[in-house]
Amino acid sequence: MTLLRLNNITRRFPLGSPLYGPRKYLVAVDGVSLDVEMGRTTGIVGESGCGKSTTGRIALGLEPPDSGGVLFQGLPLPRIDSKKWRAQRRQMQLVFQDTLAALDRRMTVSALIAEPLAIHGIGDPASRKQRVAELLHGVGLGEGHGMLYPHQLSGGQRQRVVLARALAPKPSLLVCDEPVSALDLSVQAQIVNLLMDLQQELGLGLLFISHDLRVVRHVSDRIVVMYLGRVVEQGRADAIIDQPAHPYTQALVSAMPRLPGGFDHYVALPGEPPSPTDRPCGCPFHPRCPLARDVCRQSLPELLPLGPERQVACHLVRH
């Protein structure tokens, strides 16, 4: 069952003042389409500035798309800040990257986890207290942690609190925006495994956003690769990792730690991604692509099927 569907969404942000000539626009998301299935994980991967986080915010209705549509459980998202939208937000929750910024340092852990229950009018004080105790146990924390403040916890413990807070209203969808990037490797593994266990137990759909393909590979059923606001490749996780088709995906996969029988040809990319305010003509990746041809500089490749359940946007890939 498709829980979330993004249909060709775009998002532009105006720059500067119109008083000083024609305005420039930062194109953060440019024609992105993807699905998240119930009980499954769709991972979005790409370099910083590729539009991953903006895509996640549009999926939650926190940013309005300039064009395209968002369907949740088959229905369009209500207008932002409307009463229906606030009610639906109970089913869609965000797991933040910066845990200290996400948690009010003046509130105890128990109060932080109970706050969404009060906001959505779920239960009475006694049932909320019981729900908080269940959530603390579910994310691997003890009741004693409930009396502490965020600054008294480690980074991994704070991330568990953020996860418990997101799970409090019993959502169907979690959008995880770089949830482990600030954690040590051993703690990353704990949080990722916790997420996967909770997903299996609760049947959650996950939109997992990260620049780390190693983590995305571990958690995702499908992977969406973004570059400069566009999807350059998407499909089953095993197909993307084992046989990357787009040159950018090949470079990302080649940078992963080597595994026996894995993709073992390292692809070095020169330079930095172009500015979203001054996008190159043709394929946005062509200034850094070692295989670029004249056609890549002249026309934008379409995202076309490559076998079953896979799409690639590259002039050099035979579809």
TrEMBL record:
<dbReference type="InterPro" id="IPR017871">
    <property type="entry name" value="ABC_transporter-like_CS"/>
</dbReference>
<dbReference type="InterPro" id="IPR027417">
    <property type="entry name" value="P-loop_NTPase"/>
</dbReference>
<dbReference type="GO" id="GO:0005524">
    <property type="term" value="F:ATP binding"/>
</dbReference>
<dbReference type="GO" id="GO:0016887">
    <property type="term" value="F:ATP hydrolysis activity"/>
</dbReference>
<dbReference type="InterPro" id="IPR003593">
    <property type="entry name" value="AAA+_ATPase"/>
</dbReference>
<feature type="domain" description="ABC transporter">
    <location>
        <begin position="4"/>
        <end position="253"/>
    </location>
</feature>
<dbReference type="GO" id="GO:0055085">
    <property type="term" value="P:transmembrane transport"/>
</dbReference>
<dbReference type="GO" id="GO:0005886">
    <property type="term" value="C:plasma membrane"/>
</dbReference>
<dbReference type="Pfam" id="PF00005">
    <property type="entry name" value="ABC_tran"/>
</dbReference>
<protein>
    <submittedName>
        <fullName>Peptide/nickel transport system ATP-binding protein</fullName>
    </submittedName>
</protein>
<dbReference type="InterPro" id="IPR013563">
    <property type="entry name" value="Oligopep_ABC_C"/>
</dbReference>
<keyword id="KW-0547">Nucleotide-binding</keyword>
<dbReference type="Pfam" id="PF08352">
    <property type="entry name" value="oligo_HPY"/>
</dbReference>
<keyword id="KW-0813">Transport</keyword>
<keyword id="KW-0067">ATP-binding</keyword>
<dbReference type="GO" id="GO:0015833">
    <property type="term" value="P:peptide transport"/>
</dbReference>
<comment type="similarity">
    <text>Belongs to the ABC transporter superfamily.</text>
</comment>
<dbReference type="InterPro" id="IPR003439">
    <property type="entry name" value="ABC_transporter-like_ATP-bd"/>
</dbReference>
<dbReference type="InterPro" id="IPR050319">
    <property type="entry name" value="ABC_transp_ATP-bind"/>
</dbReference>
